[in-house]
Amino acid sequence: xxxxxxxxxxxxxxxxxxxxxxxxxxxxxxxxxxxxxxxxxxxxxxxxxxxxxxxxxxxxxxxxxxxxxxxxxxxxxxxxxxxxxxxxxxxxxxxxxxxxxxxxxxxxxxxxxxxxxxxxxxxxxxxxxxxxxxxxxxxxxxxxxxxxxxxxxxxxxxxxxxxxxxxxxxxxxxxxxxxxxxxxxxxxxxxxxxxxxxxxxxxxxxxxxxxxxxxxxxxxxxxxxxxxxxxxxxxxxxxxxxxxxxxxxxxxxxx
Length: 255
Description:
Structural class: mainly alpha
Distance between the termini: 43 Å
Strand order of the largest sheet: 1-2
Number of strands: 12
Helix content: 40-55%
Order of helices and strands: HHEEHHEEHHEEHHEEHHEEHHEEH
Largest sheet: 2 strands, antiparallel
């Protein structure tokens, strides 16, 4: 359909951007005019025709590395970070652009948005959650930035601790490994966490749940091993019973 749309209107920037998002990273597509284009070329072509196409800036940023500059058809050379900023200029409610910007910031660094605001990672994540309150990875990343016994104020007025943010992430995705893992890491050994579905879970049970969701997480195998006494064992969600030594070996396998 996108190819047909471009045959009818070769200047349809949104059609180029949508077509690019349908391709795998190294895949190409042949247009009706004979051009063979990969996703990056399609996003660049989208911006040539539509300078305010948020999706094209965002997807182009996701194709780029943190250190490279991408040259647009209008002559601008933009870094990955600048491409995310341009995304937000075109669409200030693009939750994933706020989130991805946090991944490009050093500690305590701020980024200047096109509306003049200068935001640090915590502030960007609050903005991401304003746009998409169910974005689990933003809830979890924000939780990792909130110190013990402190809270962060969300746009909806809720003041939340790091543990509450992890629990909120699990609420929206019961199979989100990072939510369980980070909640387990944040908890004292003797504490029990109550999830929003009513389940009460110990530190070791949270790690077991994290491994159910992601059986390749080496850090969680190590952390689960540390909850066991010398001769204790733990039963994983697969039914497998493991000792401390076996958990450490499994962690090394994943590394």
